[in-house]
Design goal:
With about 425 residues, the protein is α/β, with parallel strands linked by helices. The chain has helices at about 10-15, 25-30, 90-105, 150-160, 170-175, 225-235, 250-255, 270-280, 285-290, 300-310, 330-345, 365-380; strands spanning about 20-25, 35-40, 45, 55-60, 65-70, 75-85, 115-120, 130-135, 135-140, 165-170, 190, 200-205, 205-210, 240-245, 260-265, 290-295, 315-320, 350-360, 385-390, 405-414. It has three domains: about 10-85, PUA domain (Archaeosine Trna-guanine Transglycosylase, Chain: A, domain 4), CATH 2.30.130.10; about 90-195, 2-Layer Sandwich (Transcription Regulator spoIIAA), CATH 3.30.750; about 220-414, Rossmann fold, CATH 3.40.50.150. Helix content is about 30%, strand content about 30%. The longest helix has 17 residues, at about 330-345. It binds S-adenosyl-L-homocysteine (SAH).
Length: about 425
Amino acid sequence: MKPLPEKSRADERASRKNIAMQISPAAERKLRHGHPWLFDQAIRKQSHAGQAGDLAIIFDQKRQFIAAGLYDPYSPIRVRVLQHRHPATINTEWFQKKIQAAFELRTDLPANTNGYRLIHGENDGFPGLVLDQYDKTWVLKIYSASWIPHLVDLLPLWLDFAPQRILLRLSREVTALPEALSTLKDGDSLHGPPLDEVITFLENGITLEADPIHGHKTGFYLDQRENRARVEALSGGADVLNIFAYTGGFSLYAARGGAKTITSVDISQPALDAAARNFTYNQSHPHIRAAQHIPLCGDAFEILSQQVFAKKKYGLVIIDPPSFAKSRAEIQTALRSYQRLTHLGLQVLKPGGVLVQASCSSRIAAEPFFRNLYEAAWQMGVKLREIERTGHPSDHPVGFDEGEYLKCLFAIKE
Ligand code: SAH
């Protein structure tokens, strides 16, 4: 366990002055509508330079309070808003109330599930911070250095819930900051023993592995839990193709749902090795034991093209790629890549089979994504009968436009 270095700086922090700010009219309007981000170019006046984690208080032209948030001199998102509209004292009690509210939202999670998101950033009032639970291990990931000086106050609040271990993950942006900023390192344990192996947890009764230190996100794609359960219900007797399978989350559910074969495609061999281990953990389930799992390592587009050439056919095809549009400039290319995947996916799908296609690009809104997908089907002369379009699960609430990243279509090829 790593002592939080900021402890000794508590007094210093208390004596630090809040930063007073005035901002552009356009940014004022956004903040008044509850948006959680203030970008650097929108700042018109600032009382003093300030440090990461200082409280910034944003006023309008008449010196009326608009919002207060955490200052981050290293990020183009210069202030992440904690408090809108009415002034409030941001202290331990304030954080405690926010944690309580977030935890209360998560009382309706499915049985036999101990892997889920406890705090979903902006959408739970903690902009730039997520907290995920994997059984007795919690994984905290921060996307802004402004949280570092506040961890010393937050940690005891989380320890009240008795996790055995809290690991810290730093986003790429935070890891790149000067060493001097903090002695904290990506992967440190803030509480409990360091992690030297992968951990397992339960999702809807399926044992799955997470690798919080080396894995994607905090180790697993917890946000697809409800879509995986939908796949389980549609997989009976099918040959299932899971493209961009990662550690096989969808594959395991398809197997439990009675799929005959499940082909998991990913470019990462370590991810497919984890998928194979996930199958071994769940051999006590008769359907999972009976199913044949076929991992295929390689580029999704190439493998799909080969399968089209070989005239392979499946009863259910899942396409859940990484985010294709990391910036506005990439949106058009991303939409074309989604269409290529739809074209390829539909060619290996039997008539009457189910297409499950998702996007996790926050830059691409739900409506254009679904329209783009139907257009791709139409170009091929394929009619899709929609089963359902889905969004976020309850532990990944959406509180602002950019927070709505996940969308997924379930449709039958007619
Ligand atoms: N569906 C998964 C999450 C997918 S994340 C789940 O529910 O857990 C995206 C995955 O795509 C990653 O595992 C990554 O290794 C893989 N990937 C990225 N580019 C790829 C490519 N060109 N071909 C195949 N897999 C790719």
